[in-house]
Amino acid sequence: MPQHTGLNRLYWKISATLLLVLAVVGIGYILITSYTARQYLQEVNQRLYGSIAKQLVKETRPLVNGQPDTAATHDIMHSMMVINPSVEVYLLDTAGRIIDYVVPYKSVKLERVGLGPVREFIDSEGQAFVLGDDPKKPGAKNAFSAAPVIESGRLTGYAYIILAGEEQAAVTSNLFGSYMLRLGAGMFFLALAAALAIGLIAIGLITRNLRQIIVAVRRFKEGDYDARIPEKDKGDLAILADTFNAMADKIEANIEQLQSMDRLRQELIANVSHDLRTPLALVQGYIETLMMKEDSLLPEERKKYLEIVMDSSDKLSRLVAQLFEYSKLEADQIQPEKEPFLLSELAQDVAVKYQILALEKNIEIRLDTPPELPLVFADVALVERVLQNLMDNALKFTPPGGKVAIQLRNHNKGVEVRVSDTGPGIPESEQAHIFERYRKSEATENKKVGTGLGLAIVKKILEIHNAAIQVQSKPGQGAAFWFMLPAYQQ
């Protein structure tokens, strides 16, 4: 039911808009028609009676020495007005000043007439449609006839005749008003009928495919994330349909990503729970033993138990610190403080720190740093963290008697860092996933070692340095991890 209500509302909105547009168009049409009709009437008057000023000048001498000959001209002027009562006759001097006139009611309000239109009319010999000043209506323009008055070869004035005076204007105004009323009523009903017809057609075209789109949107809203608008149902709303399909694809991908993230978080919780449970159980067990056998334990046993408790506490601290570090990296709360430094010196420090642990496991650490390496531009502490995680990873899986190597190489774009070991290697099927967050390889899971965050932290740190971590490994042939840091540009 809401679907039909929405479409009906859309129908009336479009229909009302079309009706309004057509009404505006109709009013505009009436105004243009009115203006054009008035212009047409004035042009007709000028074409029919444009020569009467010349006839007046020809048949009489309206000016004598530049002054109006009232006795001679008024009779002729009155005769012309008897034949055509709408005309108004004026005599102008050479500056356009009105010096005499014969008009009904003598309601002349202008003292002067602009001579520009008069000269244009005379120069075109009455062929140009020109409107001039109406002496009885200041600011108004009207059709006229004009002719020069020549005495002894000298211009002494002008005969200026308004062809549509007040009487004609009053009659035509009434007739024109009635005509416009009939025209307006006809246009209104025509626009109304056209709006209704066009509205029905437009709604039919627009809503032809809208119902199918609404059905697909409703299905998607109710949980059917496979709902899409088929190509055949897009019609005239293809842009809307394509936008919905793209949006649905994006939402579905986001939902799948969130579900994958949720699964990975569950894996993390399971891994972290196990890793926390083991050292906690050890700490709790040995503390209980110390408390229960406080009086009977030998000093050597007490020391051994305390060392186990301390070692378990260290593991817990490292685990918590690793989780905290990764959470900050994932939330973009760590910004690198880059500076130029020698990578060879940093690699030497890291190798020295891991020598004691390597000796305990009977593992050899090799450092290969060629001379004259350029400075790199990066965050020293974060790069050190990357090397530590890679060394932890290498020492963890390298068997006694094996080797771990740190190699630095100079390249055109920077310095390459490679950490390799002689451990069991990584199956090719797992190499694409070992850097994923919350993910451990099968070998790691089987041994129950670590949280699977070490390499994920390495990847995040290098990403904020615009670098990438690479791996090369084969089962039984060890593994090598490498990345490149940009050289410092002075």
Describe the structure.
With 490 residues, the protein is of the alpha+beta class. It folds into four domains: 70 residues; 112 residues, PAS domain (Beta-Lactamase, 2-Layer Sandwich), CATH 3.30.450; 54 residues, Helix Hairpins (Orthogonal Bundle), CATH 1.10.287; 150 residues, Histidine kinase-like ATPase, C-terminal domain (Heat Shock Protein 90), CATH 3.30.565.10. 55% of the residues lie in helices and 17% in strands. The chain has 13 helices and 14 strands. The strands form four sheets. A five-stranded antiparallel β-sheet has the order 4-3-7-6-5. It has a five-stranded mixed β-sheet with strand order 9-11-12-14-13. Helix 1 packs antiparallel against helix 5, helix 8 runs parallel beside helix 13 and helix 11 runs antiparallel to helix 13. The longest helix is centred in the middle third of the chain and has 55 residues. It is elongated and about 155 Å long.
What topology does this entry show?
Blueprint: H1 2-49, H2 52-59, E1 63-64, E2 67-68, H3 70-83, E3 88-92, E4 98-102, H4 115-123, E5 131-134, E6 137-151, E7 154-162, H5 166-206, H6 210-221, H7 238-292, H8 299-330, E8 339-341, H9 343-353, H10 355-360, E9 364-368, E10 376-378, H11 380-397, E11 403-410, E12 414-421, H12 442-447, H13 454-463, E13 470-473, E14 479-486
Parallel strand pairs: 9-11
Antiparallel strand pairs: 1-2, 3-4, 3-7, 5-6, 6-7, 8-10, 11-12, 12-14, 13-14
Helix pairs in contact: 1-5, 7-8, 8-13, 11-13
